């Protein structure tokens, strides 16, 4: 136990976490040349392309020092705010963290939010200035920022380059020197923390664990404390580049357990594993049921694909426990599913996986957050869909989820950023200069306002320089109304949104204008209206036109004529029939693109 070091790497996105992790594996000869890939830890295509580690993994390295062998377990953490609960559990499995800061970028929002999690868990922080090979690196300034942030001594900061490998041996030294060995009682009843799990189509669920107390042997009967389910530990082992089976895992170890579990929903990150016969007294603190916070309808473009879509969703769910879905139907879009996501990135990932792994073309409706409706009768329920909105006469009030947002930016952009946050109903709670030209702004704002276009706007206002991270701070009452869109008098349920009363008028007007641009002229006038209840608040008209695609063929060439008609028919496939109006797919996302 005294020669084990469990650590993670925390960093803002693109500051070099994956690159440095690969270097550590390199220097410790954990990967043979044959096994080398561009980025070993990111093994999903999608991850590699986005440069984000979506799912956390762990890997064990051997390190020799003064003729003594050390076992280093690197636990990888997902970098995005949507997965912050998973980050917190990975951090809870460690004693130390490498805090990486890009020497050209300085401290960013995610650096701070991840650091807070690490400090909460009492981790030893090793600050590392990365990318010092770059000519525009600014080591002195960034060092000052780190000293301010951590209250550490400048001499504690290591300088490195994941690219050239400079400073990497010193990092390994520091891990052994500074990160404490695991504590825990080897003779106590088993207490193991689940910090991640992964679906494997041959082996079922692989559960990643950190043993806090006691030990586990192959074949043991174990209990998952929070889910109260019992299993046999069919296989246990450690995580090298692949799983290496072992007979026993001891206090302080990081490893995996395979126990015949078939779906991800049975294994909950943060749960405690103990022995059935000799259980530990209590579960490990910090367990939470992750709840999706963003909801959207997902519909097949071709309604015949509904069953295929269901099969695809079920497969995705096998390895993504945080995805939820239930059937719903829309007058406009037919049969589909109401899906729950952790956040917007998670939603995008699911959409992309449906497309890539299952070849499913889907329409995703406007996302909304989870609201709580209180009725006059005193009932209370969650709303995941604008159509859940109770009758205004029965409704007492609605609560919406709030977040605390941290924004770090060059000071020259502060004015426009404040205007943006205000337009999103944000309330500033703190403003702090990190250096003379970098500011940290703290806002409280409704999650629902972030869901639309906040992030894109933040980036464009700040020319890409501002960074942003958030965490949830509970529900607050809000004056929300349901805005409906009518096409020729008929409500299009998939275009309804819940919106703050003060913004409804302007929003309805912009929606109608945008739809007017997107809905092609047809053989009759189309009235586009925005309505709150029975009250029409905006209106536009798409004028009729008769478009005859074969007109310019002068009757002559019949094959050409047929081709054109077929082409037109294909074009129509990407349209949805709403009453007598054909609505293009992109119109359903119009609301996301309002300027
Ligand atoms: P992550 O998002 O924190 O995992 O960051 P990555 O490891 O994917 O690195 C982001 C980008 O920075 C990639 O293009 C890397 O090649 C590059 N990069 C990472 N470390 C260094 C470094 O030390 N020096 C230089 N010049 N580039 C680096
Ligand atoms: Mg990465």
Give the arrangement of secondary structure elements.
Blueprint (H helix, E strand, L loop, with lengths): L3 E8 L5 H11 L17 H6 L7 E8 L2 E8 L8 H9 L3 E7 L6 H12 L3 E7 L8 H12 L7 E2 L8 H11 L12 E10 L3 E10 L2 E2 L3 E4 L4 E4 L2 E5 L3 E4 L1 E2 L4 E5 L13 E4 L18 E7 L5 H14 L4 E7 L3 E8 L2 H15 L3 E3 L3 E2 L1 E5 L4 E4 L11 E16 L3 H10 L3 E9 L2 E9 H5 L2 H8 L5 E12 L1 E8 L2 E2 L5 E4 H18 L7 E7 L2 E8 L15 H16 L1 E4 L2 E4 L11
Parallel strand pairs: 1-3, 1-4, 4-5, 5-6
Antiparallel strand pairs: 2-3, 7-8, 7-16, 8-15, 9-14, 10-11, 10-16, 12-13, 12-15, 17-19, 17-20, 17-21, 18-19, 22-23, 22-24, 24-26, 24-27, 25-26, 28-29, 28-30, 28-31, 31-32, 33-34
Helix pairs in contact: 7-8, 9-11
The structure holds guanosine-5'-diphosphate (GDP) and magnesium ion.
Could you name the key traits of this structure?
single chain, alpha+beta, six-stranded mixed sheet, 34 strands, globular, binds guanosine-5'-diphosphate
Describe this structure in words.
There is one protein chain. This protein has 595 residues and is an alpha+beta fold. The strands form seven sheets. The protein has an eight-stranded antiparallel β-sheet. A six-stranded mixed β-sheet has the order 2-3-1-4-5-6, sandwiched between helices. The N and C termini lie far apart (58 Å). The protein binds guanosine-5'-diphosphate and magnesium ion. Magnesium ion is lined by residues 17-18, 42, 51, 53.
């Amino acid at each position: 136990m005294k020669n084990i070091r469990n650590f993670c790497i925390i960093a803002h996105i693109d500051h070099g976490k994956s690159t440095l992790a690969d270097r550590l594996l390199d220097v410790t000869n954990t990967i043979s040349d044959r096994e080398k890939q561009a980025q070993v830890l990111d093994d999903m295509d999608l991850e590699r392309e986005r440069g984000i580690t979506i799912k956390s993994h762990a890997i064990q390295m051997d390190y020799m020092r003064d003729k003594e062998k050390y076992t280093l377990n690197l636990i990888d953490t997902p970098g995005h705010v949507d997965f912050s609960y998973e980050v917190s559990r990975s951090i809870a499995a460690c004693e130390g963290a490498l805090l990486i800061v890009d020497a050209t970028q300085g401290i960013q929002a995610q650096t701070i939010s991840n650091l807070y999690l690490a400090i909460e868990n009492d981790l030893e922080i090793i600050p590392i200035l990365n990318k010092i090979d770059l000519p525009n690196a600014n080591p002195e300034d960034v060092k000052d920022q780190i000293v301010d942030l951590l209250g550490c001594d400048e001499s504690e900061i290591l300088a490195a380059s994941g690219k050239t490998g400079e400073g990497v041996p010193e990092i390994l030294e520091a891990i052994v020197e500074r990160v404490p060995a695991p504590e825990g009682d080897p003779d106590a009843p088993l207490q193991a923390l689940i910090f991640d799990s992964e679906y494997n189509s041959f082996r079922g669920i692989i559960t990643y664990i950190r043993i806090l107390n006691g030990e586990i042997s192959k074949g043991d009967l174990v209990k998952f404390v929070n889910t109260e389910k019992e299993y046999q530990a069919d296989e246990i082992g450690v995580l090298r580049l692949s799983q290496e089976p072992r007979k026993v895992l001891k206090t302080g170890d990081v490893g995996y357990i395979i126990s015949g579990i078939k779906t991800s929903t049975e294994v909950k990150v943060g749960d405690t594993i103990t022995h059935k016969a000799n259980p530990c007294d209590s579960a490990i603190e910090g367990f939470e049921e992750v709840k999706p916070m963003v909801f959207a309808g997902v519909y097949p473009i071709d309604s015949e694909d509904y069953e295929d879509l269901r099969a695809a969703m079920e497969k995705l769910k096998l390895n993504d426990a945080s995805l939820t879905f239930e059937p719903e139907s829309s007058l406009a879009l037919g049969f589909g599913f109401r899906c729950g996501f952790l956040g917007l990135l998670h939603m995008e990932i699911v959409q992309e996986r449906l497309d890539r792994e299952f070849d499913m073309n889907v329409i995703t409706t406007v996302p909304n957050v989870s609201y709580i409706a209180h009725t006059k009768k005193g009932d209370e329920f969650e709303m995941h869909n604008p159509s859940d909105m109770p009758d205004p006469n029965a409704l007492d009030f609605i609560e919406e989820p709030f977040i605390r947002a941290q924004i770090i930016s060059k000071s020259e952009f502060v004015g426009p950023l404040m205007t943006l946050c205000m337009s999103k109903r944000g309330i500033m709670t703190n403003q702090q200069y990190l250096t003379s030209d970098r500011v940290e702004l703290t806002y409280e704002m409704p999650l629902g306002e972030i869901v639309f276009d906040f992030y894109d706007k933040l980036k464009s206002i700040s020319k890409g320089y501002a960074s942003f991270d958030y965490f949830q701070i509970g529900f607050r009452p809000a004056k929300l109304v349901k805005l409906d869109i009518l096409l020729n008098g008929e409500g299009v349920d998939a275009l309804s949104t819940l919106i703050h009363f003060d913004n409804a008028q302007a929003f309805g007007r912009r929606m109608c204008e945008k739809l007017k641009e997107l809905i092609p002229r047809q053989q009759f006038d189309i009235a586009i209206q925005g309505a709150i209840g029975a009250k029409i608040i905006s209106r536009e008209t798409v004028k009729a036109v008769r478009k005859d695609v074969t007109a310019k063929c002068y009757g002559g060439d019949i094959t050409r004529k047929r081709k054109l008609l077929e082409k037109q028919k294909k074009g129509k496939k990407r349209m949805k029939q709403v009453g007598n109006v054909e609505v293009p797919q992109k119109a359903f996302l119009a609301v996301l693109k309002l300027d």
